[in-house]
Amino acid sequence: MRCFSSVAAAFLRLCAVVGPVLLGVLTLLYTGRPAISFLAAGAALAIAILACDAWLIARRDWLTGGVALTTQIGFLFSVGGYAAAPFPAVCPLPKASPPAGMAIYVLPTGVNHRTAAFAYRGGSPWEKWDSVSNAVLVRHPQGDVLIDTGFGRTIRSQLEAMPLLFRLATDLEQSRPAADRLDAAGYDSKHLRFILLTHAHWDHVSGVPDFPGVPVLVTAAEHRFIYDGGFPNAPARNIDPRRFQDYGFDGAPYLGFDQSRDLYGDGSIVIVPAPGHTPGSVVVFVTLPGGSRYAFVGDLVWQLEGLARREERPWLEARVLGEDPTSVQQSMRRLSAIAMRYPQINIVAAHDPRGYVGIPELSRSAVH
Ligand SMILES: [Zn+2]
Ligand SMILES: [Zn+2]
Hints:
It is built from 14 helices and 12 strands. With 368 residues, it is of the alpha/beta class.
């Protein structure tokens, strides 16, 4: 009898310690080949393990109990691997009170002829992609804002200073600089209060010299990055340093981003940090009085497929640009979550022409 009870005790201990391993095997069998028998065996085993746990606690067998706890935690951890990895939480659509008279216009400045293979992993080398470079004018009663500047009047000389290989791989077709488009529309440049950069790469700052005296808003991280070297931000280094105006993120979380900057305090132009492509890259959310919403994501992705398929830039381009892959992935996940949750927000990737459909070009009648 004594012998039998010691065998039974050993069995109960074994059940508490090894049971979770068997439970893990049953879980694997069920997920691979769903059958009620696996479920029933798993449920019975789980109950048996809990009963053995109770028995160990009653006997104050802390040594075996500790080992059993370890394997049981291991089992729970392995089951956790089956749980969904949801997108970052997306808060409710933030409130905005855009003032009457606010509007946005696109100012096309040119095109770079490339292929989808250049833009994102898995993109076809046969699919031609016209990588547009645009400036976007946001008209606002507190002062107009130009989001990026596209190719400026001096783009040719800026390009001549670039490495030969880069120039050979760049098939650029300039249309009309943003400053010329504004002049042609009769726009009074005294309304332009800020140039707001999504980031400081050459194709986004090229037109800055065409707007002398207009402050250029950058994050502190991007400001440092400009002077860290690298040919893609060489044109930014030639901008009068006194024109850069740093800003911080002192606002509440915004659509899953931890920080924000509400430029005019009315929710109409809200900037969030989205580092990765460059250390100080941002996304600019614009809300218009009619309720239209836009997210200007800069170069987080070059083509919208990058977000939809969550495909980053090809390895070589990401390395040449010095991207931080972990930050790029984080920023892309946040934007993908927003795109899925709020399809009414128009995602504008700087170089994808499809994002600008629906944004009018500036005309004389719009200005006067
Ligand atoms: Zn860029
Ligand atoms: Zn760019």
